Amino acid sequence: MAGEFDVIVIGAGPGGYVCAIRAAQLGLRVACVEKRATLGGTCLNIGCIPSKALLQSSENFAATQHAWADHGIVVEGVKLDLARMQARKAEVVDANVRGIEFLFKKNKVRWLKGEARIAARGRVQVAGEDYAAKHIVIATGSESMPLAGVAVDEQRIVTSTGALEFDHVPGHLVVIGGGVIGLELGSVWQRLGSQVTVIEFLDRLIPGNDAEIAKHFQRILAKQGLKFRLSSKVTGATLTDGGVTLTVEPVKGGAAEEVKADAVLLAIGRRATTAGLGLQEVGVALDRQGRVITDAHFATNVPGIYAIGDVIAGPMLAHKAEDEGMALAEHLAGKAGHVNYEAIPGVVYTWPEVAGVGRTEEQLKADGVDYRVGKFPFTANARARAMGSTEGFVKILADRATDRILGCHIIGPDAGTLIAEIVTAIEFGASSEDVARICHAHPSLNEAVKEAALAVDNRAIHI
User: Distance between terminal CA atoms of the chain?
Assistant: First the structure.
């Protein structure tokens, strides 16, 4: 046996590395398996972090071209240096992944390099070596969902991985999928000069988010220049000398059309990564979507084997995986771990941003919950006016009888930061009255949250 551990975590993404570090902090002997050359998983290497770097860079480029003149800042001869922008993105990624390696060394987590296979209960094989563990944690994350008839080559037909690496700006970029990944990366390349068309199977964008927010979001993105074909499906893709020709059909029937593109981004969702782990051989049960089935403590049906993050049910979010990793590590160390799934925020990092937590209006209506709504627009927020970022609003949903906050949905500047206040409120069972009575700094964007809380009881001050 090449080594014995209390815990072996398979996968060093946000869920896996957090689980490993926390377990080590609690005194357990821990190893983490990662087949990439760097730690951090999809998120740090080819997902959350590089995409945010490009989002920021492209926002700066667009602001220089279009927004700064309103502030009295005149910049002439603005040029795009895409190679430098991509190099900066790589530097950001490198700093983050090296940071995880430092944390492993600091906390004495052993990195087992290579692909893992669960050979039996308590035994993991990595690069031809056998390792023993009391507890095995599956944290292998997710991968891009394929689409029949659309063959990815990561050159002209790309997933998010290829869309982060373009060495030129596509003339016409078609995005298949109107979810978070497609809209974020579509926004990047639209700002940098692409004509972007989004094709979505449903009749709306960002499914799962509040419908009113989604409708407002589409209007804003359309004003920015993105084009949309909703209730449409892509049934085929053909590579041509000039790019890609897609076959697009209406979902409810009708004649197929051809759509020509220089590049295509396939972003219809993600699926759990479980291939090659030996789960079937060891008897770990999967659901119909191929996700690992777990109980409330992340245990599978096989004693000693657990799973967290994208590979199990729930939203595929890095911070959800991190919280699960923390909770499981504490549980394995004999402590109490906790994840409140009603208080996990979701953010779309476009500009303006979209953020939400808790229930949507559609969910409350479907469940027959009697609720009140408080809304406040950023056009009436002094700080947003000073910034020149007044599009969007804050929307708070509260139980009519108890006033407990059930959900909050924001579209506007720094929505991903603003939502944290309501995440805290929901975690501690706060009411809209509680948020309304908290002193908020002036002038700040956070005042829009306070005003929305006041609006639940029809007493907003500034509208």
Answer: 69
Give the confidence band of 242 by pLDDT, cuts at 50, 70, 90: confident
Task: Using DSSP, state whether 103 is helix, strand or coil.
Answer: helix
In this structure, are 410 and 354 located in the same domain?
yes
- Do 175 and 253 sit in the same domain of this protein? yes
Distance CA 324, CA 373 (A): 31
Contact 304, 134 (CB under 8 A): yes
Q: Which DSSP letter does residue 433 get?
A: H
- Count of CB atoms situated within 10 Å of the CB of 260: 13
Both structure tokens of 37? 């050359």
DSSP alpha helix (H) spans, 346-429: 361-366, 382-387, 415-427
Chain segment 374-427, per-residue pLDDT in tens: 999 999 999 999 999 999 999 999 999 999 999 999 999 999 999 999 999 999
CA 446, distance to chain mean position in Å, is: 23
Whether 374 and 398 have beta carbons less than 8 Å apart is answered as yes
pLDDT the model gives residue 456: 98
Q: Which of 71, 297, 338, 442 is catalytic?
A: 442
> Do 104 and 232 belong to one domain?
no
The mean pLDDT value for 247-276 works out to 96
| 296 class by beta-carbon count within 10 Å (0-12 exposed, 13-18 middle, 19+ buried) | exposed
State the average pLDDT for the chain: 97
Residues 6+ apart with CB under 8 A from 99: none
Please check the confidence at residue 201 and state whether its pLDDT lies above 90.
yes
Do residue 109 and residue 8 come from a single domain?
Answer: yes
- The confidence score (pLDDT) of residue 1 equals 80
- What the block records as the tokens of 143 is 């991968």
Domain count, the chain: 3
How many Cβ atoms from other residues are within 10 Å of residue 454's Cβ?
A: 22
**DSSP E strand stretches across 326-381:** 346-348, 353-358, 371-377
Residue 442 annotated to the active site: yes
